[in-house]
Amino acid sequence: MELASKSIQSNFLTCFLCSKLYEEPTTLQCLHSFCKKCILKNIQQQTSDVTKKCPFCQETTDENLEEKNTNMLLKNRVVFLKEQAKNLSNPICALCRLKFQKSTMAVAQCISCLDYLCEVCSNFHNMTTLTINHQVMSLTEIKSGKYDDAIFKVTFKTFCPKHPDEEIKIYCIPCHTLTCIHCLILGHKGHEYKTLDMLKEDKVKIAKNVFHKLNEKLKSLNRSKDSMESAQNQLKTQRKTIESKIRKKSYEALSRINKRRDKMLKDLEDLYLPKSKGLTIEINKIAARCKIIKQALQYAECMSKGMSVDVVLSVDELIKRLENLAEDDDGKFKIAGINTEMSIITLKVTKPLELLLGSAERFWKEMERKCGSPQDDNSSDFICSFADKSTQTSEVDFGICHG
What pLDDT score was predicted for residue 207? Predict the structure, then answer.
């Protein structure tokens, strides 16, 4: 069903629990309304037997919801919404239907008597003494919801149960009763009274004072909200700025570390490569000497098994050769020298690395001493100080490493 107007299409007439138009709307102390069956079902499902809570705002209520009266304002509004949707779906001119028995499409409506009018009849509607002050509006304006309140007041008039033709317009102050003019004369003679318009005006004045206070409170809350949102935006901006600075400084520090790492690896290669080549040469020399010694031993063993004459003739020369091979200690000297050089190389390579790692540890300890721990309440100060000082500190530390 197409809704009649834009103003009533809001959630004002929609139950929060079932998302449908109200059925027997019940309004809680917090002014949130629900279908009676919906709120009773929700209350039954709540775990607490002591307190009942509004399902929208969670405010507690001690009302007996089963006996609570229906909110007639909301109920009448829902009825009005449905009737308007039905009436505006295919409106027929009331005068043409009554006088000419014709179904002429209406293009306007009188918001004083609620008659739908065609274009011709709408032009003559104000030409009688009874309708001269009537207000005729186009259906486009009617459907916009601009005149919903005016139409609602005409549609939902309250009549006296004792005098059905008389509208209730009087409030008897001593009796606290709404009544018609006839009942006032017959049953409330001499009682102080006010017309409903006067009573409404008094109530509206009281309500306006409360409205003013609430509006001031709303303005104050909005100012606080705006201030907090501004602070939140500043915090986001500051966070992005510091994050960018941290990433930049970290990238710079890592670049220097990588650069230093590459240099240290190159230095290591430059130190170890010639030594490794020298060791290869020495290893080959030792292998060659081992081969010579092994061949000499094999020759000596072979000779010892030969003829006595051959041994006697050759043994002196063999012994001299073996003695020369046994007395050679060049291999021991070279190995001792190499071990000493390796210790020096290790010291040259590892010392800068130890300085680098030690400087990083000293840096963080110094930052925590000056700025506090990142987990402290002043963590933002720590981050700011880190971003400002990290480059300077790391440059000093890298200076130590290069030295």
Answer: 87
Q: What is the total residue count of the chain?
A: 403
Q: Cα 278 vs. chain centroid, distance in angstroms?
A: 66
User: What secondary structure does DSSP assign to 252-295, as a single string?
Assistant: HHHHHHHHHHHHHHHHHHHHHHHHHHHHHHHHHHHHHHHHHHHH
Integer angstrom CA distances of residue 234 from 228, 231, 244, 375: 10, 5, 15, 21
Buried b (16+ CB within 10 A) or exposed e, 123-132: eebeeeeeee
Predicted local confidence at residue 391, as pLDDT: 47
Query: What integer pLDDT is reported at residue 325 of this predicted model?
Result: 75
Helix axes 196-304, 308-327, angle to 10 degrees: 150
**How confident is the model at residue 403, as a pLDDT?**
45
Residues of the chain with confidence (pLDDT) below 70: 1-11, 48-50, 306-312, 328-403
Residues 52 and 61 sit within 8 Å (Cβ to Cβ): yes
Q: According to the model, what pLDDT value does residue 400 have?
A: 44
The SS3 of residue 134 is coil
pLDDT of res. 8: 46
Q: Which two tokens stand for residue 93?
A: 């001119």
Q: Answer for the pair 94, 115: CB distance below 8 angstroms, yes or no.
A: yes
DSSP code string of 196-211: HHHHHHHHHHHHHHHH
Please state, in angstroms and rounded to a whole number, the distance separating the CA atoms of residues 28 and 59.
10
**Residue 164 pLDDT:** 87
Q: Which two tokens stand for residue 361?
A: 């540890």
Q: Give CA–CA dist 394/252, Å, rounded.
A: 10
Among candidate residues 57, 62, 64, 2, the one with its CA nearest the CA of residue 30? 57
DSSP helix/strand/coil, 110: strand
* 3 state DSSP class of 105: strand
- 231 contacts: CB under 8 Å, gap ≥ 6: none
Count other Cβ atoms within 10 Å, centred on residue 27: 18
Backbone torsions φ then ψ of 46, nearest 5 degrees: -70, 140
**DSSP secondary structure letter of residue 35:** E
Say what the pLDDT of residue 372 is.
Answer: 58
| CB contact at 8 A, 35 and 24 | yes
Identify the CA nearest to 193 among candidates 222, 219, 223, 173. Answer: 173
